Every structure is written in structure tokens, then in C-alpha cells.
Amino acid sequence: MRPLRIPGLRVLVPLAFLALAGCSVHFVSDYDEQIDNGLTQLNTDLAVFVTRMVNAAGTPAGTYTYKKDDAYPNKDFYAVQEGKLDTLIVRAQVHKALDQCPSTAIVQHAVASAVPGTDVARASAQIPKDDCSVALLQLVKGGIGDLKKFHEVQGNAGIPAVAKDPILVGGVGSLVRAAMTVEVAKKTGAKTGG
């Protein structure tokens, strides 16, 4: 039996191979649903906690050191959120290691759109070139740490009502929004100016 010969096949196979070699294949998507969901939940948890603390300001339940049934629910909030953020940071580091990070321009634009004007330069300066969401998530974790310190030094006063917007609209709230903006941009493939 004679092998089947197709004219031009010797030319077409290498051309097809070259065409496929020019395509980029992503085995892991830039978008990470767990990071997106984690940030969304963090935003909810943060808003609920701060509102609860504002409502309990000036009472023992609003203090950082409040103890209930051998537990410290207010202190524990910070530990839980920092632990969750550590996990999100590890996930973002995996994307960085796999070279699946969004451009620095996307991250910088997200910071500029979510962080109050006076803090944009400070926050943006902490985001290294092509460092994905890692640095932004670390800024969020730092913001949780700053809120924790603030809550602690307030003593018996707790978190006053006048601090709610500076915390949730500015401060850590703006950093969470910036990180969420990056995730939405990655999910939708949105292009940002910058």
C-alpha cells in the first residue's frame, strides 16, 4: 500500500505550526475569581464592622479590647481580615510568578480612581512596575493595620461617627475599591488610560 500524498502538505504543516507558535496561550487567566470574591467580602465585612463600631462608640462593645464570652470579637476582626488578605496576596503572587499580571498602568489607574487625591501619589509610589495586584493587596492589608491601630488608641471612645467616611470613603475603603477596580478590569478586559 502506497502512502497517501497530498500536494503542498509539506509546506502547510510547518506554516500551521508557525502560526500556532505565534499565539499566546494562557493556562491561568489574569482574572482570579477568588481574589475578586475575597475583596468583595472584605468590603462588606469592613463596612459592617465600622458601622457597628460607630454605633457602639463610647460603650464597652465599641472598644478594641471588648471581651465577650471569653472572646475578643473586635480584635479578632482584624486578625481574620489580615489572614484572608494574606491568602489573597499569595494568590496574586502566583499570578505574578506565572507572568499573568495586569500592567502597572491598570493598577495605577485603579489607585487614581479610588484613592483620595492627596493619597494617590503615596499609594502609587508603593506599586512596583509590573507587580500585579500584590502591592495593592499589601496596601489594603496595611490599611487594615492602620485602622486597627486607630481603633486601639481610641481606647474607651471606640471609633467615632466622624471617622466613618475617612475610613470607608478614604483610607482603607479607598484601597479596597482600588483593588476591586483592578479585578473588574482584569475580568472584563477593560483598558485604562494612564
Properties at a glance:
single chain, 194 residues, mainly alpha
Outline the structure in words.
It is built from 8 helices and no strands. It has 194 residues and is mostly helical. Helix 2 packs antiparallel against helix 8 (171-188) and helix 4 packs across helix 8. The chain is globular, with a radius of gyration of 24 Å.
SSE run: HHHHHHHH
Structural domains: how many: 1
The low-confidence runs, each spanning 5 or more residues with pLDDT under 50, are: 6-29
Count of distinct strands: 0
Q: Roughly what percent helix? A: 55-70%
Average pLDDT level: 77
Structural class: mainly alpha
User: How big a fraction of the residues is strand?
Assistant: under 5%
Q: In a nutshell, what does this entry contain?
A:
By secondary structure, this protein is mainly α.
Protein topology:
Elements: H1 9-21, H2 33-55, H3 73-97, H4 104-114, H5 117-125, H6 134-153, H7 164-168, H8 171-188
Helix pairs in contact: 2-3, 2-8, 3-6, 4-5, 4-8, 6-8
